[in-house]
Amino acid sequence: MSEKKHNEALNKADLEVASKMSAAGECPYRLKYHFMPPIGWMNDPNGFVQFDGEYHLFFQFNPYSSTWGPIHWGHATSKDLVIWKHQPVALAPSEFYDFSDDCIHGCASGCAVIDKGNLILLYTGHVETRSPMQVQCIASSNDGIHFIKNSYNPVIYSFPKDGSKDFRDPKVWRYQDSWYMIVGTKQDDIGKIVMYTSNNLLDWTYIGVTAESNGSQGDMWECPDLFPLNDRDILIISPIKNTKNLSPFYMIGNLDYKNNRFRHEIEQTLDYGFDFYAPQTMIDEKGRRILIAWMESWLSVKPSQKNGWAGAMTIPRILELDTDGYLRQKPLDELTRIRSNHKHMGPFEAENFRTLMDCGESVSETIVEFDLNKTTAKIFEFQVRCSQDGEERTVIRIDLLNNEISMDRDNAGCGEKGISKAPLPYCESGILKLHIFLDASSIELFINDGLCVITNRIYPQNDSIKCNIIPENGKVFICGIDNWTLCSIWE
Ligand code: FRU
Q1: Residue owning the nearest CA to atom 12 of ligand 1
Q2: Each residue of 379-414: pLDDT tens digit?
Q3: For ligand 1, atom 6: residue with the closest CA
């Protein structure tokens, strides 16, 4: 009976996608190599997993509007994390725990695991005016495409004594012979993650609070992720403070299973841009810890909405701990497959404003290395997506006096403005490496092999493709620049 209701809701959503797809496809801001929804609204990545050799990405999806609404799980698959194929909608609101006729409702964020050859989704059922408002649910599939909600749902009905009605975004993993689940919550304006354990994914026992805000790290913790990397454990949190979403941060420490406590020494911002939220990781069959995040923010102006869609994902990033114990995010190696038209420049010195004739492309990848030992300018800019007259531009500014790197999108086009600032990572060798991914409406900047990352959406004119170097009071020494055009992954 309930399977029928779910299937009807899924069919309706799929018909909506099919009928609107070509219109959204016309939008100039459609990305060429980033994942985005076929139509409608997309936020968090969900259920990121590899199943039977194929990568699966689910996402918070409203097929009926380009704004957030009754939230479904959209679905796509990929053999290499580069070329994506849209699949039928995986989860639609249909049951008393995730659907309501008269209030906000839906299948909120969650994760995926593989159990006994089945692909299992764990998600939060949300019904705004019900008590409890948020409950944890599961759905399973044996073909990786069609999902059946479990008749046992919700598998966690009440929020725990340490939490509150904000109780969402389960992340589940297997350790030794048990399943573990963390869920984001809050109590008395302190963000927390709480942990459960289970032997069968259906019956969950509450263990307690694994980590919580120290008072300054957010009053609600969303989309937690906790995983081992080398001999450490990494906890990632997407925090809310005073109803505003803050930048996700990570902590490097160790999870003490016996006492259910995560203790950490290092805490850092994961990405210093405005458009990076709700990251989720998975481990693939090659043993790589791969992260993908929503490349957007809740409150920003989204110019694509008038064309029937909104939301994108970052490129997949490999997480590594380096020998100094720092976390690095590295662009997925497979992305080199869409490179074409390679150009190399350098070494050279720039003393005045200089346009890099061979670097201008709107959809491109650029690696530039500066030798700071031979650079006398204390401040210099690398500008991308510049118009011919220079009025429109996205400015990467390196400030060696204040050891700061910033990305200024005040003149970047018709989208949101603002300057993202990050500490300039220390580089003993004196070489500063910028790795820049530009797409039709985005920029991701990886600094010194992913020690620091800045991700922003930008909406320049199509023909704003110049790239300039601007030293201030001195010269800049460029060891080399490599630039590629990147091909579209969409048919
Ligand atoms: C994070 C979030 C999650 C929630 C989802 C709803 O962006 O608020 O906490 O599950 O979005 O779409």
Answers
A1: 108
A2: 999 999 999 999 999 999 999 999 999 999 999 999
A3: 108
